[in-house]
Structure formats: C-alpha cells, structure tokens
Amino acid sequence: QVQLVESGGGLVQAGRSLRLSCTASGSMAMLNSINVMGWYRQAPGKQRELVATIQSRGSTNFVDSVKGRFTISRDNAKNTVYLQMNNLKPEDTAVYSCAARIGFRNYWGQGTQVTVSS
Prior knowledge:
Blueprint: E1 2-7, E2 10-13, E3 18-26, H1 28-32, E4 36-42, E5 49-55, E6 60-62, E7 70-75, E8 80-85, E9 94-102, E10 105-108, E11 112-117
Parallel strand pairs: 2-11
Antiparallel strand pairs: 1-3, 3-8, 4-5, 4-9, 5-6, 7-8, 9-10, 9-11
C-alpha cells in the first residue's frame, strides 16, 4: 500500500499563488514502483479533472486551462510532488487530490480544498 497526504490548500484571492504538496509513504518497494504522480481536481457539480502529471523521469503534462500558470515538480528523495499554482482564478476552485500510479492502479490522497475568491 501507498499512503498519500496532501497539504497547502486554502483560500486565496484571484491572482495570488498557492503551492500544494503531496507526500507518499509506504514500503520502499512500493515507493520505488511509483511511475507517475499527478494532481486531479473536482469542482462542485463537475467531473474530476486531471490537472497535471509528472513521470518518474521528470516529464510533465498539464491540462490546457492551467498551462503557463501551474508547474509540477517532484522530489524523489522526499517522495513528494508539488503543484505550484500561480495567477489563480476563481475557476480553479476545487478539491485537489494527489494520485500515484503503480502499474495499473492509482492510489489517492484525501484531497485538499482550494478556494479562489474574485
């Protein structure tokens, strides 16, 4: 099993920044098997959306709506992935969840609320 714990959410005004962190814990074998980590978000009344992913080798991918504003990084030594969110917009308001993929299975964190006021 892998456990994921997110932190860094909160309430901010539009145009400001937040950084989310997600730390994975578990056996060394499981942690070394994580190949992709990513962030998803779900706004009220909407489907969950993939925001950003980062591969173990560092390649990244972003949903179009956050390109140029969000960055994702990974500290493998700390088993932590970060989502730096700049120039936040009210439409970024959602519960953000971290995910780690091992094989064909995703492990999920509990989620952290991000609220952006206009």
